[in-house]
Amino acid sequence: xxxxxxxRPEGGPAPEREAPDAESGQGAAATRQITTSDxxxxxxxxxxxxSKVQARLVSEPETAxxxxxxxxxxxxxxxxxxEQIESLxxxxxxxxxxxxxxxxxxxxxxxxxxxxxxxxDSVSEIMVNxxxxxxxxxxxxxxLTGATFLNDEHIRRIIDRIISPLGRRCDETTPMVDARLPDxxxxxAIIPPLCLNGPSLTIRKFFKKPLGPADLVARGAAxxxxxxxxxxxxxxxxxxxxxxxxxxxxxxxLNMLSSFIPDGERIITIENAAELQLQQxxxxxxxxxxxxxxxxxxxxxxxxxVNALRMRPDRIVVxxxxxxxxxxxxxxxxxxxxGSMTTLHANTPRDAISRLETMVLMAGLDxxxxxxxxxxxxxxxxxxxxxxxxxxxxxxxxxxxxxxMEGDVITMSEIFAFQQQGVRDGKVVGKIMPTGxxxxxxxxxxxxxxxxxxSVFGFGGRSPA
Length: 465
Description:
The protein has 465 residues and is α/β, with parallel strands linked by helices. It has helices at 36-40, 44-59, 61-65, 70-88, 94-108, 115-119, 152-163, 213-218, 224-235, 250-259, 301-308, 325-334, 349-361, 369-379, 442-447, and strands at 123-129, 134-138, 141-144, 176-180, 186-190, 200-204, 240-244, 267-271, 283-287, 315-318, 341-345, 382-388, 394-406, 409-424, 427-434.
């Protein structure tokens, strides 16, 4: 099938692809109404029809100018599908005409067989392993769908449609790419020769509405007492690290924590691919840039952290620390930017400290181990540990306070811990509970006018040793 590319207006953001109703050419988003069965029931005859529609569009002067909005193209596709059906003399029902229109709009404007999966709110992640295997994650469980692509070129065309408006490329010279969809969902693509079984595409979907504290409590990921503590930590300008494995919900928790930041503060977010959905008015969003085809022009997380310090931030929120930017983040936390937050990959709070040490060394400075640990213990107040349990549920399993150093070892107190009581009907039964330890950071909270009732920490609280 030839390639048809609709780009965004010059200087403007990538528009939401809103296609009109398949029957009238106006109204609802038809590409979002297409189902997996629409693709499963398509034939070679259907694909030939869409190729002819695409050829007609390419030949039209309007396509060369490319100044129309997406809803115009959706209406035009609906008209051309009807004209093509009549010119071929095909006898189709009205239902099939609607299906073909949706199919054509999804192929020419949307993301093809991924459209119904993106529209399915129960799907949290989409994984394409070559043209014949599309997997999804639902409720923490991975399952195979019946959707397929035609071939490798079909996948490459969809990848190109997503990343071209962002100025990114994915070809033999740059076979890996990170990008985002217009709704904020994150995409990673990798193609041959690095990926041997065909182009691989991973999309981590975003909830249309970010999960709030009440949602996390309802899902059993946290308790009202824990949410009250975390809100106090953010309002009290404590520095927080969110730790966990892949897909444990670190960005979701970072979003929730960021929602507690008062509206009047200046927040700067720094990410590889912008995912955070902050609702405050005074937010600056920074995003890294990969090197161009000549290997120049790369802007890394570390460069943005250093630059953010010159932008008069009240808070710096780094989507994820992976390398030497950890040192700059710790420096920021220790030099008047209290209340900053970041995430990192680690399996336990103790592992999170070890990873921070390793990442600081990746900055290229020959710092002694004790100096690094002193920086960490002074900068980080709280580590929130997340975990995906065996039933697929994601929960906060530990909240630890860094209390200082004993010799060369950073000391911690466990404020909250998840207590698993068993498994019932395949679901993990348990709850995160206070350990009864009174955190030392309460003094800092009180200095900021924030008090917490003793019940938050369990009755009979005692000071950590």
